[in-house]
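Hi F.,

I've been meaning to write this up properly since the lab meeting, where we talked about keeping a consistent format for the predictions we share between groups. The idea is simple: the sequence comes first, exactly as it goes in, then the structure tokens exactly as they come out, then a line or two of notes. No screenshots and no reformatting. I'm using this chain as the first example so we have something concrete to point to.
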Amino acid sequence: MLKNAIVPLLVIAHILWGGGFIVLKIVMESLTIGQILLGRVLLASIVYALIWKRIPKPDYQAGDLKYLVIVALCEPFLLFVFETLGLSYTTASQAGMIVACVPLTVALGAFLLYRERVSRRCMAGIGFAVIGVVIVSAFGEAGGQSSRPLLGNFLMFCAVLAATGNALTIKHLSQRYSFMFLSAIQVFGATILFLPLAFTSPLPAEISWATIGGLIYLSLGITFCVYFIINYSLGQIKAAYVILFTNLIPISTLLLAFVILGERLSAVQYAGALLVIAGVVLAGAPESSSD
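Output, unedited:
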């Protein structure tokens, strides 16, 4: 994979990620949460099992096991659990806004764990985004696509924390572990953990092609392709630059939710959404010497 292809691939990956919230809403009409969670990782796990012998072996060091366990738990296991539960209570549009906070929580986490400098501009961006998320959540009204928006948005923020823990741990491990090995560990761990949940309820008598297509999109499109691209990029360019592409998620989610699901935010919520986008753009703008 050529380095000059990283940027367009990251753009495609995060647009696919944003579309995943819409696909989840569609798949939820036919399958239980446990079945969806297993479906999101099963095909990707099979792909990694087929190519396992081609994956570079890691330079394991004493103490790495706890970090590998954290990676396997945080993402996609906890991320998918909180995302799927959250989307059962809130809209895809609101979920996309909250996921936009990942670059900001990663910046704060990197400051606390690795003492990476956080500029005044970045702190201002974090403030704008937090206020925006509070507005989007506080003014969410229960409806057909959003039965308990406050609870759903809280669960989505838990997904943000899981993604943050994953990014910070990957940063620590990426010097000794290939992106393919880390991706495989994530998917294998999630498959093992999701397997019991999938059999707590019987499969539906009929599964539509839309549901099957949705599971393929979630498993191969997001769990395999998106994570493959992101983990590869983390080993090639600065993590801060990779994480900033998360800004594309709320934009693609808002547009696709509007077109496909017919979701609408209130005027106040759109104002909050603009604050979120302004915050992540401000936090990710090129630094000046005065910051």
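Notes:
The chain has one domain: 3-94+144-264.
The radius of gyration is 18 Å.

If this format works for you, I'll send the rest the same way.

G.
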